[in-house]
Amino acid sequence: MPDPFHVFSNEHWFALLAGFSVVFGLIVVGRKGGRSQVLATGLLAFLNLSAYPLSQAAWMVSGIPLTTDNFVPLHLCDVAAITAGFALLTRHRVLCGLTYFWGLAATFQALVTPAIQVGFPHLPFVMFFVHHFAVVGAALYLPLSLGWRPPGPWWRGPVEAYGWGVVYLAVAMTANRVLGSNFGFASRPPDNPSLLDHLGAWPWYLVWMNVLGLLLFCGLALPFAGHFRKNPLVK
């Protein structure tokens, strides 16, 4: 059996340090503009769009049996990675907004309390952090390197992200009922410790998760106070 992963262990702290270092480097390179920005943007988009197939390859090489939760890309972070990849390539307004709000309010939480059972140096461990840092990296890269700004009024971005989040939750709960899976952790909290452990039993933690999500989205809009306008880069 692979070595188990432990939250806030040395390997967890090292993964966070390495991941944020790479994200910082990409942001710095992207801010230079020109060819440097094209290369940094392309690399980040590739990491997001290839996260799912590379993760599948990592699980298969590891020899660990795949469950439905691992095999079907219906976790929010799977959807967020695809969204982020196309946001970077197209600069589409809605995709950029979802990447920013979902990436920093949801995927960031997955880095703090990862829902993974295998530790370093197993490939699924590596790909878990590559996948989630790619999403968080894109969420930071869009405003800090590409100059993206959410359009006004200030509540539009948070409400759109929340609305699409509700749609995702409905799809995840339907899939869970049909497949017996746990996409979006809508059927039960993850096995590893997480914020959901403090939000009550099912289904009440889903209610509080929605409330906290909307509050986080609104908080993430605050850095753009006074600058809510449609960025010309965003279609």
Summarize the structure.
The protein has 235 residues and is mainly alpha-helical. The chain has nine helices and no strands.
Please provide a written account of the structure:
There is one protein chain. The protein has one domain. It contains nine helices and no strands. The chain is globular, with a radius of gyration of 17 Å. The C terminus is likely disordered.
Strand elements, count: 0
Low-confidence stretches: 230-235
Number of domains: 1
> What's the alpha carbon Rg, rounded to whole Å?
17 Å
Q: What sequence of helices (H) and strands (E) makes up the elements?
A: HHHHHHHHH
Strand content: under 5%
Q: Return the structural class.
A: mainly alpha
Summarize the main sheet: none
The separation of the N and C termini measures 49 Å
How many individual helices?
Answer: 9
The overall pLDDT average reads: 90
Global morphology:
globular
Helix amount = 55-70%
